[in-house]
């Protein structure tokens, strides 16, 4: 089946009643033969029934937002015999078992790149907040203890070395911005050849080399079996004394307790964190209590522009798949022939 395939007829797209930019629902209003059902995230029978008859499922990428029962697992797929495709509402896909979907003949897409500008900007918001000591300066002003500007003296990032772990859509934007700040950029990415990493604006290095050379280490890789717990006590020990650690990737890639220990013993000079193993982290979390940590609530990609582009991208890819057109961000390309067979059976 190709782009000339006939348009879908009576296809049901479902999503949970979690916040999404109105552009998602609006996209389907202009498409006859497609309907969008909004199911209660905290529902039981009504949500199960709605998913059981769905042909496409848009699901939030945030694991702490989606109840475990409605995350895309073998168990859920067994209850959804009509399901043809799943769209993750972000670059990540923590709520979707892609391998299970492939076994079931279900195509999976994400929205990589849709909020890349937003996340790249957050990376530098965290970094600049650290080196300019914005948290400490504001605290001193609020407490009335700001007696000397020199006591709050910050640093420049010009001439420093930035190490990017994962130079995909977001990582390459970070590399471009870093060059504008006068930074040297290193990157490691096992999915890309050295020449492509160079084309994206960075010097290719191994992860150990990056950790040893970078003044700032910034994570932009997905959370999967290969990256889970990748940055732990051993990795922090390899980093340069006084280095900064930034993550706008996913909680679980870095070990939070090992990071806290590296800050407490003075090995690292600070951390900027937008992602957490538990989101939001508990108020008494040790990292939140430190003045050398700038913390946000996984809001790097949560901008009006980023969320709108994610919603539009998800709707567009779902419409492509249901019309038999291969989507731009297919995570399991090996499923495509079987997906087309299942779609054709549905259209007979």
From TrEMBL:
<feature type="domain" description="D-isomer specific 2-hydroxyacid dehydrogenase NAD-binding">
    <location>
        <begin position="124"/>
        <end position="300"/>
    </location>
</feature>
<dbReference type="InterPro" id="IPR029753">
    <property type="entry name" value="D-isomer_DH_CS"/>
</dbReference>
<dbReference type="GO" id="GO:0051287">
    <property type="term" value="F:NAD binding"/>
</dbReference>
<dbReference type="GO" id="GO:0102155">
    <property type="term" value="F:S-sulfolactate dehydrogenase activity"/>
</dbReference>
<feature type="domain" description="D-isomer specific 2-hydroxyacid dehydrogenase catalytic">
    <location>
        <begin position="32"/>
        <end position="332"/>
    </location>
</feature>
<dbReference type="InterPro" id="IPR006140">
    <property type="entry name" value="D-isomer_DH_NAD-bd"/>
</dbReference>
<keyword id="KW-0560">Oxidoreductase</keyword>
<dbReference type="InterPro" id="IPR036291">
    <property type="entry name" value="NAD(P)-bd_dom_sf"/>
</dbReference>
<protein>
    <submittedName>
        <fullName>(S)-sulfolactate dehydrogenase</fullName>
        <ecNumber>1.1.1.310</ecNumber>
    </submittedName>
</protein>
<dbReference type="InterPro" id="IPR006139">
    <property type="entry name" value="D-isomer_2_OHA_DH_cat_dom"/>
</dbReference>
<comment type="similarity">
    <text>Belongs to the D-isomer specific 2-hydroxyacid dehydrogenase family.</text>
</comment>
<dbReference type="InterPro" id="IPR050857">
    <property type="entry name" value="D-2-hydroxyacid_DH"/>
</dbReference>
<keyword id="KW-0520">NAD</keyword>
<dbReference type="Pfam" id="PF00389">
    <property type="entry name" value="2-Hacid_dh"/>
</dbReference>
<dbReference type="Pfam" id="PF02826">
    <property type="entry name" value="2-Hacid_dh_C"/>
</dbReference>
């Amino acid at each position: 089946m190709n782009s000339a395939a006939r348009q879908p007829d009576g296809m049901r797209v479902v999503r949970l009643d979690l916040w999404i930019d109105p552009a998602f629902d609006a996209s389907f209003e202009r498409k006859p033969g497609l309907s969008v059902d909004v199911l209660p995230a905290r529902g039981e029978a009504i949500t199960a029934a709605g998913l059981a008859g769905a042909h496409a499922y848009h699901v939030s990428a945030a694991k702490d937002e989606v109840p475990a029962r409605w995350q895309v697992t073998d168990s859920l797929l067994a209850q959804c015999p009509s399901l043809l495709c799943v769209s993750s509402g972000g670059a990540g896909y923590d709520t979707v078992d892609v391998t299970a979907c492939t076994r079931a003949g279900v195509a999976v897409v994400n929205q990589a790149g849709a909020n890349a500008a937003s996340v790249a900007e957050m990376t530098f918001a965290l970094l600049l907040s650290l080196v300019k000591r914005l948290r400490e300066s504001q605290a001193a002003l609020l407490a009335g203890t700001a007696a000397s500007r020199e006591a709050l003296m910050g640093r420049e990032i010009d001439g420093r070395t930035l190490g990017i772990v994962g130079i995909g859509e977001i990582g390459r934007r970070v590399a471009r911005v870093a060059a504008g700040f006068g930074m040297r950029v290193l990157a490691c990415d096992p999915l890309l050849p050295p020449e492509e990493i160079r084309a994206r604006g960075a010097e290719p290095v191994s992860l150990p080399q990056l950790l040893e050379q970078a003044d700032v280490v910034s994570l932009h890789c997905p959370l999967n079996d290969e990256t889970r717990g990748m940055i732990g006590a051993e990795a922090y020990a390899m980093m340069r004394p006084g280095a900064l650690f930034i993550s706008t990737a996913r909680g679980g890639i870095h070990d939070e307790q090992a990071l806290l220990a590296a800050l407490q013993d003075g090995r690292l000079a600070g951390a900027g964190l937008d992602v957490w193993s538990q989101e939001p982290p508990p108020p008494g979390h040790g990292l939140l209590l430190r003045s050398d940590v700038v913390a946000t609530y996984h809001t790097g990609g949560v901008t009006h522009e980023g969320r709108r582009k994610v919603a539009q991208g998800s709707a567009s890819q779902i419409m492509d798949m249901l019309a038999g057109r291969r989507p731009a961000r297919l995570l399991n390309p090996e499923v495509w022939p079987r997906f087309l067979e299942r779609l054709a059976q549905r259209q007979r």
